[in-house]
Structure formats: structure tokens, C-alpha cells
Amino acid sequence: MTAGGGTATTDAVAVVVSAVRDGIMQGRFAPGQRLPEADLVALYDASRGAVRAALAQLENEGIVERERNRGARVRPISLQEAVEITEARAVVEGLCAAKAAVKATPDDHRKLRELGVELAATVENSDVVAYSQVNQQIHRAIRDLSGHETAGRMLDRLRTQSVRYHYTVALLPGRPSVGLQEHLEVIETVCAGDPEVAEQRMRAHLLSVVDALHQLDANLHQW
């Protein structure tokens, strides 16, 4: 690929889309931050055509917004929208947990439980950044085990949009300990091969996050 206009291949566009999503998820790109085309071309060694097509796709997904003569930026979302996104995730990720419970192998069970051990260590060490990262890894692992491609595409969009609020939720007193127990329950129900209970546990976990978001909202209004 070159940094000129060029023809944007599907693979090249997908690489930039994935990279920008990851940048938002990992905190490199903040809500409202500008995403100049030239910067993305240089950062990802992509053609300008691939960058423009990627930004158009991200705009369609509600992750990026573009303004005439001002370019693209990461779209900020409201707390209420974060609540709605998490409610939608509860349904979709519940489905993924059910599918994963049926499909996961003993080796998959071992890897999931290892992630649970890692999450416990982050809580013990009071490492909120690591907690958020392992949290995301667990959700991604269960989604991947489900093999449900449509759900996966939906979750790429939903999780990217709300990630900043979920990091803030992890800062609430006692929330990582609650989240740890919920994640361990999800992992064990997936490993037990019980799709109905796995779906229920995942939904309950994410609806618990919704409650925490409401708590966050209440705390903000106290100021």
C-alpha cells in the first residue's frame, strides 16, 4: 500500500477499522479526539483511500463522526446511551455465552479459567487498568468460542462505543470485586456446558454493569 490516494482493498480497510477500534478500546483515542487522515495514513502505513473508507465504515457504526471541513473524530456518547448499549450487549453476549457453553472444549475451559485467575490477581493488586484489560479478554474469548459471526460484528461496535464508561465503572468502590465474582460465575457455567445457565449468568453480569452505570450517574449528579 502507498500513502497516496490509491484503491482501497477490503483487507486494507479492515486493517484500519480494526486498528482504530483497538485504539479506542485501549484508550489511545479518547472521545472527541480528532482523527486526521494524514495521521492515520502514517500511523498504519495505509493508503489514503483505505483510511477514508475505514472512517466511513466507522461513521456508519456510530463510532466516529465526520464534519465538513473539520474531518473525523471519535464520537462521544452520553451515559444514557452507554446504559442502552450495555442492555443490548446483555442480550447478544448472553447468546454468545450459551453458544460457547455448547462448543467449548476442555482446552477452552482451561484457558477461560486461566483468565479468571488473571482477573483475580488484578483485583488483589488493585490494578484497575489490568482489570479492565482482562475483563475485555474474557468477554472476547467467550464471544470467539461462540462462533457466532453476526453477534461478533455487533459486539465490535457496541463494546467500542461504551468502553470508556466501563473503565469508569471499574473505579467505583468495590466494583472490581463484584465484577470478579460475576465473571467467575460466567466462566464456570460455560465450562459446565449448561447453555441456559451460561446465558442467564452473562445477562445478569451485564445488567449488574447497567446498575453500576446508574450509580455512576447518581454520583455525577451529587456534584
Question: Would you write up a description of this structure?
Answer:
The protein has 223 residues and is mainly alpha-helical. The protein is built from 9 helices and 2 strands, in the order H-H-H-E-E-H-H-H-H-H-H. Strands 1-2 form a two-stranded antiparallel sheet. Helix 4 crosses helix 6, helix 4 packs antiparallel against helix 9 and helix 5 packs antiparallel against helix 6. The termini are far apart.
**Count of DSSP helices?**
9
Q: What's the assembly state of these chains?
A: single chain
* Poorly predicted ranges: 1-5
Q: How far is it from the N-terminal to the C-terminal residue, by CA?
A: 51 Å
> What structural class should be given to the helix and strand makeup?
mainly alpha
Could you tell me the mean pLDDT? 90
Any idea what the shape is? globular
Keywords: DNA-binding, Transcription, Transcription regulation
Protein name: GntR family transcriptional regulator
InterPro entries: GntR_C, TF_FadR/GntR_C, Tscrpt_reg_HTH_GntR, WH-like_DNA-bd_sf, WH_DNA-bd_sf
Layout of secondary structure:
Layout: H1 10-25, H2 37-44, H3 48-60, E1 64-67, E2 71-74, H4 79-103, H5 106-124, H6 128-146, H7 149-169, H8 175-191, H9 195-222
Antiparallel strand pairs: 1-2
In a few lines, what is going on in this structure?
With 223 residues, the chain is mainly alpha-helical. The chain has nine helices and two strands; from the N terminus they run αααββαααααα.
